[in-house]
Structure formats: structure tokens, C-alpha cells
Specification:
With 274 residues, the protein is α/β, with parallel strands linked by helices. The protein folds into two domains: 216 residues, Spore Coat Polysaccharide Biosynthesis Protein SpsA, Chain A; 46 residues, no CATH class. It contains ten helices and nine strands. Strands 1, 2, 3, 4, 5, 6, 7, 8 and 9 form a nine-stranded mixed sheet that branches. A hairpin with a 5-residue loop joins strand 6 and strand 7. The protein is globular.
């Protein structure tokens, strides 16, 4: 059995499409576990509608933690997972029909090679716009990502290569990464670094997800005039985020270099704008 962990927050616009694409998977050996992070729209209503139709397939985690952010949302979902394998799921993408089947087959193949080892499988993605029109058929090519660097911790600490919505992990990897520390801002990067250090990462050079790009993905996407107060607030957020990221990689790789880290962050920022 595979637990698909879906973290939601104000996702009413695209959520039904995502859940429908999971229901249409060729592999049916899965359960969808959802935790909503305090949505103010109709996200929970949509979830409850699917829950009433597929109670044996879908579970909604309820707690009083409120809005805890994406990484901690996934951390709580991990705590509620009991299956042999887990997959991360975003609320606004579309999974191609053979995604689970292809990834599970690769996982089984990896397990035959690496017994009792933390394993992470990830795939390429097709980048699409809000209306699912193709922007690029390969995120790896578009963003100049070499997925094979997942075997080299000294590289993956400076640039994540495993996109969360393509990841499948086994129970050994789950135990390794859970709980996700609060200073770790990106659940997929945390998972990839840990598995690269203590286990094995394998990739599938095929897109299994339509990776939707839209304005709601960006925190603070609303345009603001660059007043002194806005500049100071953004500068503080920048320093906090990068400080936490550096703390994260030092936890995994104590010899990480601060200057190399900031140069890498700058290069990655440039790549995202090309």
C-alpha cells in the first residue's frame, strides 16, 4: 500500500483536478491522506465531497494546529502515514495516469539492489501554465538540473534535484526524515539530503506530473510598492530564509561552506529567471 500525502491550503481552484488525476491512476494500491493548513476558501468543502464519495480511499487529518506552513504540514502527514511507501502530493498539479505504477516499479527494482536501505525515487516533470498548456516538456532540461547529482551529497546540499510532487520513499527513508525540523523550509530538499547521505536516490528520466505554474504559488505574489518598510520586511524575510537553509545543510553536511552556499543561491535565483 502507498500513502499519498497531500498538503492543502487555499487550493480550491485546482484541487479537484489533482484528486481526479489520482483517482485515474493505473495503480490502485494507494490511500490519499490530506491535511488542510487552515484554508479560508472552499478547499475543505471540496475534500469533504471527495471523502463522501471515496471514504475507503481518502482520509482527512484534523487537528487544532492551525496554519503551520507547507513543510510542517507534510511533517504532520508523515506522522500519520503507516504504509510501506509514501508519496508527496501538491494541490495544484495533475498526475499522469502511470505515475504511481512507474515509480513503484522503479522502487521495487531499487529494493532488489539495496536491501533495508532508505530509498527515494523521483521523476522529471512537464511544466505547464495555469490552463495546462505546455511551457516545457522537461523541468530538468528547462532548469538545467542533472538528476544524477542526487548521488553526490556535496552537490545536492547546494541545489535540490528532487521535486516533492514526484517523490516516492520507502519506510526506511520515512523514518530517516520524520519529523521534519521547523527550520527546514523545504520538505523535499530535507528528504533528498538525508536520503543522499544515508541511503540511495534513483531517478526516472520521464515526466510523470504536469507541474502547474501560476501566480498563487508564490508567497506574497501581490505586487507591493517598494517603500522603505516593504524593503526592510523583505530583507528580513530573505535573511531568515537563507539562514534557516544554511542551518539545514550544516545539519546534514557540517563542512558546508557559507560562501559556496550564497553563490549557489544566487546562481539558482538567476536560473529561475532565465
Amino acid at each position: 500500500m502507498i500513502d499519498i500525502l497531500l498538503a492543502t491550503y487555499n487550493g480550491e481552484k485546482y484541487l479537484a483536478e489533482q484528486i481526479d488525476s489520482i483517482l485515474l491512476q493505473t495503480c490502485k494500491d494507494w490511500k490519499l491522506i490530506i491535511r488542510d493548513d487552515g484554508s479560508g476558501d472552499n478547499t475543505v468543502g471540496i475534500i469533504n465531497d471527495y471523502l463522501s464519495r471515496c471514504p475507503e480511499r481518502i482520509e482527512l487529518i484534523k487537528d487544532d494546529l492551525g496554519n503551520i506552513g507547507p513543510a510542517q504540514n507534510f511533517s504532520r502527514l508523515l506522522e500519520n502515514s503507516k504504509s510501506e511507501y509514501i508519496m508527496f502530493c501538491d494541490q495544484d498539479d495533475v498526475w499522469l495516469p502511470e505515475k504511481i505504477e512507474l515509480t513503484l516499479n522503479k522502487m521495487k527494482e531499487a529494493e532488489n539492489l539495496c536491501h533495508d536501505t532508505p530509498l527515494l525515487i523521483h521523476t522529471d516533470l512537464t511544466i505547464v501554465d495555469a490552463d495546462l498548456m505546455e511551457i516545457a516538456d522537461s523541468l530538468w532540461a528547462y532548469c538545467k538540473i542533472n538528476p544524477d547529482t542526487g548521488r553526490d551529497l556535496s552537490k545536492i546540499i547546494y541545489r535540490n534535484i528532487a521535486t516533492g510532487c514526484t517523490i516516492m520513499m520507502n519506510r526506511h527513508a520515512k523514518r530517516l526524515i520524520s519529523p521534519i525540523p521547523e527550520y527546514a523550509g523545504l520538505h523535499d530538499w530535507w528528504a533528498a539530503m538525508n536520503v543522499s547521505k544515508y541511503g540511495k536516490i534513483f531517478n526516472i528520466p520521464r515526466a510523470t506530473v504536469l507541474y502547474r505554474q501560476h501566480s498563487q504559488q508564490v508567497i506574497g505574489a501581490k505586487k507591493e510598492s517598494m517603500t522603505p518598510a516593504v524593503f526592510i520586511r523583505k530583507l528580513k524575510r530573505f535573511i531568515r530564509n537563507y539562514s534557516n537553509d544554511y542551518k539545514t545543510i550544516k545539519q546534514i553536511y557540517p563542512s558546508a561552506n557559507l560562501m559556496t552556499f550564497f553563490i549557489s543561491c544566487f546562481r539558482n535565483s538567476i536560473r529561475r529567471r532565465l
